[in-house]
Amino acid sequence: MLQRKVDGVSGTTRPGGRTAETRSKVLAAVLAELIDSGYGRTSVEGVAERAGIHKTTIYRRWGNKERLVAEALENAADVRTEVVDTGDIDADMRTLARAVTATLSTHEGAATVRAIVAEAPGSPQLAAVMSGFWAARRAQIGPIIEHAIARKQLPATTDPSEVMKYVAAPIYYQLLMSDEPLTEATADRAAAAALTAARAGLLTHG
Amino acid sequence: MLQRKVDGVSGTTRPGGRTAETRSKVLAAVLAELIDSGYGRTSVEGVAERAGIHKTTIYRRWGNKERLVAEALENAADVRTEVVDTGDIDADMRTLARAVTATLSTHEGAATVRAIVAEAPGSPQLAAVMSGFWAARRAQIGPIIEHAIARKQLPATTDPSEVMKYVAAPIYYQLLMSDEPLTEATADRAAAAALTAARAGLLTHG
Amino acid sequence: MLQRKVDGVSGTTRPGGRTAETRSKVLAAVLAELIDSGYGRTSVEGVAERAGIHKTTIYRRWGNKERLVAEALENAADVRTEVVDTGDIDADMRTLARAVTATLSTHEGAATVRAIVAEAPGSPQLAAVMSGFWAARRAQIGPIIEHAIARKQLPATTDPSEVMKYVAAPIYYQLLMSDEPLTEATADRAAAAALTAARAGLLTHG
Amino acid sequence: MLQRKVDGVSGTTRPGGRTAETRSKVLAAVLAELIDSGYGRTSVEGVAERAGIHKTTIYRRWGNKERLVAEALENAADVRTEVVDTGDIDADMRTLARAVTATLSTHEGAATVRAIVAEAPGSPQLAAVMSGFWAARRAQIGPIIEHAIARKQLPATTDPSEVMKYVAAPIYYQLLMSDEPLTEATADRAAAAALTAARAGLLTHG
DNA sequence: TCATAAACGAGACGGTACGTCTCGTCTTGTG
DNA sequence: CACAAGACGAGACGTACCGTCTCGTTTATGA
After folding, report:
1. Do residue C178 and residue D200 have CB atoms under 8 angstroms apart?
2. What pTM did the predictor assign?
3. Which nucleotide shows the minimum CA-to-C1' distance to residue C20?
4. Which secondary structure element, helix H or strand E, spans residue A161, and what is its range?
């Protein structure tokens, strides 16, 4: 399954105590601080206080702020969007786009994305997080696109990655670069535009 | 005329002496630091040193790091993309997309965008910078789209802002969210996809 | 004269601020903490708080705890014992011994000595402080001994340094190695014993 | 019988394990660290590592750093100076002084003394160690002095403790307060001076 | 010989202090 | 008056130890 040990990254061997619980409290606190204040104004000490543990513990386990935030974001990114493959490519794309929009519409989602974009350059950890996140997304739509191709609804050489990119791009762009709110209309338009481009044979491999 | 107007955006009051020169040295230094190190690792003291002036001077004129960076970026964004209206909507869009791609392909352009995206939330100054930047872009393509509409190459209700957004989105997205390089193919595909969506009547007002 | 610039060690050039006052507040606070708690339990943060200034200021000026304490002790050691040369060698030695005893009998004097002895090994700064302190002491009794020699009260080859050492040794020893209190009797006995040894020709050069 | 008696030094209570060996390894490590680094820079963790055991074990047995060091020093002080009573008070005192000098001349002896002096105030444990150490020394010279008194070589009221003090004081003083090396001449002079003072009736009870 | 209790290993944790790095303010002096 | 020089307050960062606790493992002994 996709089940991951709760204990993923740092529950090394045998905890002398409350390892896993501490970990989850801290990661939750990181996200909360990120949302409230953004990466720049998030402090390790603030996280520790919010989590009700001591800052030394954080430094012991995560070493520095960057790795701490990276793991928190990785964790958050793990909460994956449920996407179904109904066979109706238009509806499925719309569903996907709306899911993305919904995520980014929350204060939490928006803050997470901003934190990642802001810190990814220069942080191998975060780059890896993002990489993994998008790989997961691609894995999700791959089958949907392939089914659509099988049903001749999309050109045979259509690249699922590109479709994903063209669906997501306008949504992320609107979040990051404009002050317009994200609505369902935003999502639907993005989905429709991506499919139109795909049908026109623009979103192919290579 | 002989009027020089070195003093573009914020020629505060009246350059009593070396004001303007100091200003441009500082702003250049800010950009350089931003490019070298990113926003987080750019320090006012580093900027001062690089500019060969004293940090007090910076604080006197810009007050804080955020306003300093905001003005530097505003200044940088002023270097505007030359876009021509040849009447061939496909070619013109491709030219526009390539110009955007070219800008973001430079180390400087990429760093600038990242700095803006990272700091815009929470910084009214930067939000305004970004706002103005996109207004300028929209002003550029407005006439092109209108001409295309006049020639019936695009639906009458096509929204130039949306077209701009759909051209730019995949390019910015690729810069910020993936590690694929920006190429001319990226630009051409973005331009084609945006036009396809526009022709399909998806990029209309409202 | 023996007058030293108030500003001795760190009044570098000509400060843009309140340098000298800060310095004296800090050094006084160091001594106070040393007396209250001993070297081991004296913290830079505590000193800063007591001095009413910020710890960063201390680190900026003294670099680390060791140098801070060294300078404070150097400063304290400067408060010199007044010793007079009456011509009566017995009385003068007794006066000297009593002065030493009086100094070491105060909480402050005892704490200072303990701090120096504890930290001197491994701290060139403190070694230098101690060196200077004893040089000053030797300079004080030098003339007294010479006068006594001139009056044939002491052997011609008597070494003032040795006399000083034999006067001070039992007093310091009693402070550091036993729990007996320092009294005038302690001082008088030390003075008498040193003179007896000197008269016996034991405290000579080489 | 089958009794093994692994338990050399202090067969604490009931060894469920390898008690005695651990103890001696730890105490040796403490001394070594003390010698290498002084009290301030000696860490329990460092001691544990050097002893090849775990720091928890140390805390279990000694509770804290102070008690650990106290016991190590107590142990070290136990190695007692052999002093003989030949009947020749001058020679015996010289032997005693040379023994003291020899001990303090070693890196180990010097470090031990410094550690004790530095930490004794505020540490009842160490005060007790020192107290015991000097009691042992007094016990050693008591008979020698008494024999000398019996032979009328010293005044009847001579206090052995005072004689010990006046022999040791210049030696300790030189170690702690100056940078002159300890030599046999140092020892001989100290012995001679103490005896001179004693013969002059200065080192009496009360 | 085998169960048991003490000693031990491993390591997470709370906590104090250290020393470093920026940011932004303020003071003083100089051209 | 603009600027250089720099002291200072504020506060976060990351490190080193201290001493406590829990859990699991080893080992000597006594039944």
Report:
1. no
2. 0.79
3. F7
4. helix A160-177
